[in-house]
Amino acid sequence: MTDASPMRVDGSTTGHGDSGGNATADTSSQGNQGLTTPCPPNVSTTAEATTRGRKRSWVWEHFTMVGGGDSKKARAACKYCGTDYAATSANGTKNLIAHILKQCKKYPNSIGKSQSTLAFEFTNDGGSGDLFAVPFSVEACRQALVEMVILDELPFRIVEGEGFKRFVRVVCPKWTTNKIPSRMAIARDCFNVFLREKKKLGRALRGQRICLTTDTWTSVQNLNYMCLTAHFIDDNWTLHKRIINFCVVDNFKGVTLGRAVESCLFQWKLKKILTLTVDNASSNSSLIEFLKDKTKEKKDTVLENEFLHVRCYAHILNLIVHEGLKELDESIAKIRNVVRYVRSSPQRWSKLQACAERETISSKSQPCLDVPTRWDFTYMMLDKAQKFQKAFERLEEVDKNFLPTLREGEEDEDGDDGNCGQSKKGKKVFGAPEREDWIKVRLFVKFLQLFYDAALRFSGSKAVTANQFVPELMLIRDTIEEECLNENESLKKMAMDMKSKFNKYWENLDNQNLLLYVAVVLDPRYKLRYVHFAFKGLYHDISKVDEKTEQVKDALVRMYEAYLKNDKGRDAQNNMSTQLSQGSSGSSSSGPLSVRRSLRMAQFMREIEEENSLEKKSEVERYLEEGLAKLDGYFDILNWWKANSCRFPVLSLVARHVLAIPVSTVASESAFSIEGRVLDPFRSSLSPRMVEGLLCAQDWLRSSSTPISLQKALEDVEEFEKLDSELGELTIADEENPNASLVKQQQQQQQQEIPTLTWPENSELDLDWIKNLISTFDWSSKNLPPSEFQSVLPVQVFDTLILAASKILHEEPNCLTIDPDKSSTVVVVGDIHGQMHDLIFLLKQAGFPSQNHFFVFNGNYVNHGAWGLETFLLLLAWKVFMPDRVFLLRGNHESKYCTSVYGFEKEVLTKYGEKGEHVYQKCLGCFEGLPLASIIAGCVFTAHGGLFRSIPLIQSKTSKGKKKSRKLSSNSEPESLSLGSLEELSRARRFVLDPPVEGLNLIPGDVLWSDPSMTLGLSLNKERNIGLLWGPDCTEDFLKKFNLKLIIRSHEGPDVREKRTGFGGMDEGFTIDHVVESGKLITVFSAPDYPQFQATEERYKNKGRTLFWNPLILIIQIFTALKQLLQDHR
């Protein structure tokens, strides 16, 4: 890369004379300042230079005047390449600008049209991913600008601002000012993004049954808007929230809103609606009745819209909390006074901090003011202020202006003298809080914490809330009941008022939507037992408890039967064959083989249907009779239903739709407010159509919008206050080296930010530790060079982890026996090759290992990728945590030879430096212990490469009079090859770093290196010079001999498969290689866009696959590389 030529960075001119002579940059005054890139760039460097009253062009900084003093023959020569141009006043600067921007090859900032720039990919969390080449594109810049305007809610005129143009000149000089679109062009582009994304969303919503929420807005122009949002769970069991309409309505009457909703549904062609969540406004009853009348007779309506109406429970929660706040108005006002006093100036704040130090208050939180319309801000203010009670009391003693200032402030505001009483205007005023006020507030804060947490849960849009509604409701009720017995009369009265409001909305089951109780039943941790338990707390009459419980069960049964009658419900019962045919479509082709496959699958499905018909129990009965799932904080209900949808095909459809029901109409940032939502002045000035386009497009472009967190906002305030203090310290730093303090501070901050993993004190791994390991590895891969990895995972922690894993692995047999029950799922994963980020994505998509969710990893964890060590260690951590649920098999790359040739050895030495050889040898030792194969449920054989030869015992010749001895035969001649047995596999010596290619211990090499063939029989694998090739007849013999139905292998990526004839490519991440009478042979590859070390344009665009297996079904699930997903979204 060519260094940029020196320019001033202090904003001064470069000393051009009036004649346009040489522009000599004065570099003597630059000192240690960095050099900036020359321009078209820095307009500020020439803004003051003028010629005859006109501003001098920036381009003169890059040319030198030549041709003597004759102004008629004056020429300008490029400082970089020497090319000269006529430079008289008649010629202008157009040619000079064109030369610098488009023609000069030696200009330091010149980038050819075909030249690419290296850049890092962005990830979901805002970090950086892989390094890849990006060619410059004006269209790409324009598209990114449009999305920035939409996502960050910027005004269109930002593109015409001088500051924005200066910014673009510096960060992207090739995107010249005349190519930046105007504000009207940006407005058109924004609306085109809306239209483009609307088409995509329309395709995604096609055929979905959705749940709706409505919200109302106003603008400064007094226009009324209605926002309609769709909530649904897709086929991959992922919850989605999408705004589908934001339109002007004449008023907020029920019929008016109903017509608007009906029009929107017609426009989007949405016919399948389950629920509509609305707030508690009386007009919404008319809205519900209007929609029921219009849709109850339609074919796709469920139970005539009996369960259409869902109340916004965040809104009801607000009403209950504000009922309680009324009782503490006086105490809250007093605390607000003292907080306002200390926050009004730095000097007062310093005095409070000094008082806090004297009282040894070590709380990092700082008192903050509230917003009267946001009770969560009030809760935060009280919570933080009560921790400083003693500091405020000491401040009252040491600061003589404390009480007088409060009185002056109240007199200014209310016209009173500050004493507690009536002001001249009749308004009651308060002074500083007394001890009784602090006692009330402290008790109230603990009480309010429950409502704060519940409001956050009710208003979440990225996680299922329907199944948590009833448990939260019962917790709130129990807490209110407990406070009704409080000895403090104020708190007791407050609780009684809140109980009255609670009973008004939630005591009578007939006023509630039963689907929210059905959602609890559909949570396998609760089922009907928790509903019965909850009703016992609400109703003391056991007969009434049984009656209400049966009412909920009846609602579930009626939903199930309605879905069963539906065409999609009947199809769901046959979804096993559908899923398999979809999974195999990527590699199958038409012809006899395809016909044979279909016939075999039809036979299989008939067998399954016959087995199911014998049970004579509905899915609801079977589901309720099963035991409860483990009750813990890490249970993923969507993952559970995803894994068990094959066992409950119709009931899982009910669950998919019921669990999508939102219990709140508002997002978490609005869940605490009693005010309506108002458009900002910029959006209010736009046409309604443009407002809808901007709001909808913003919602659609945000792949994972993060709700605003009050706690995070307050932490930001505290961080900025710390920064302000630090900047104050910098002003009195050592004048001889003003940067020293800043550099030291940055170094300390960097050291503090690097997370360091430690081994648990009790030496037992848990899920939190593994999640921390994942996030730490992910962070370090994006923020640290490889040489600093050992600061994240010290060698002592590495040693402990690999020792624990090695002990487990070395004790396992060569061929594992995995016996899941019928309710469990086994996920088989192919080659990963150091693609840690794709592995993390795979685990999140497939679901973490659990008691009923097994994983079998089929080898090749390292090499060809930058994070082979992290990948292997992450899997070892899972193995240590769940040794009987996570199984790691060996691949051919887990050997000394492959790791020394294909990058893993170098990776380890780079990451651990002097200790690298020690770490590498420990990894090799662990490789030796990895098992070779597994058998799942007695019918699925998995191994990295595949089948293996027999090494039989033969009689040896002996001399006369001596006993005959027996020895192993190497059986290496092609004519003598035969398939090995599972018993021989169990006897093989796997504890070798590099499986031998000759001799008596050939089985490990066969298992790791063999490949299938379309040629019948067994032969040596001459292409690899190790292992075997076996044909379909061998697959049939092996399956039949050991009563198996399926062989799952890996070993072959897209690079190998493209060289093989007779087999499908690995573009889809898997192939079905042999289909025989007894079953199938499948190859699965789980490293998408392989290999990672290749340049982007040379990498294969293959997908990754995982196989989900349980006793009833095999599902082949696709996943793409993380970067590919992001590109598709964009």
Describe the model.
This protein is of the alpha/beta class. It folds into 6 domains: 1-110, no CATH class; 116-181, no CATH class; 193-312 and 680-701, Nucleotidyltransferase, domain 5 (2-Layer Sandwich), CATH 3.30.420; 325-447, no CATH class; 503-629 and 637-658, no CATH class; 794-953 and 969-1129, Metallo-dependent phosphatases (Purple Acid Phosphatase, chain A, domain 2). Helix content is 45%, strand content 13%. It contains 41 helices and 31 strands. Strands 8, 9, 10, 11, 12 and 15 form a 6-stranded mixed β-sheet that branches. Strand 9 (224-233) and strand 10 form a beta hairpin. Helix 13 (435-458) packs antiparallel against helix 14 (469-483). The longest helix is centred in the middle third of the chain and has 24 residues, at 435-458. The radius of gyration is 36 Å and the shape is globular. Mean pLDDT is 77; it is low at 1-51, 410-427, 574-596, 668-676, 704-717, 727-752, 962-971 and 1120-1130. Keywords: DNA-binding, Hydrolase, Metal-binding, Nucleus, Transcription, Transcription regulation, Zinc, Zinc-finger. Residues 54-111 form the BED-type domain. Residues 22-49 have a biased composition (Polar residues).
Could you give a quick summary of the protein structure above?
The chain has 1130 residues and is of the alpha/beta class.
